[in-house]
Amino acid sequence: MPQYAVLIYEKELPGGVADIPPEVMEANIAAGDKIAALGVRIVHELALQPAAATRTIRKDGLVTDGPFLETKEVLAGFFVVEAPDLDTALAVGKLLPIMDGAVEVRPLL
What we know:
Elements: E1 3-11, H1 22-37, E2 41-47, E3 55-57, E4 63-65, E5 73-82, H2 86-95, E6 102-107
Antiparallel strand pairs: 1-5, 1-6, 2-5, 3-4
């Protein structure tokens, strides 16, 4: 079955996970059952440390602080799912609560 990366981008919160509104956390937790109901298997899911913990390796081997792309939104977490098609993977992305950012769905090779 095809696999898709479901990337969650959000504005970074000063307190991290502790600052996520309770209703957003509840919607995140509830998404698992809804995703399974679509016939989609979650292969892997992770939340990421704050962008300040990121290091980027440049072409010349120089290591710099922070993410490669500098925006007010950061990659907050990701899923890898097995879904029958892109439309179903997009349905998974729509189940995830979005505060200020967006969810990107990308087919994997």
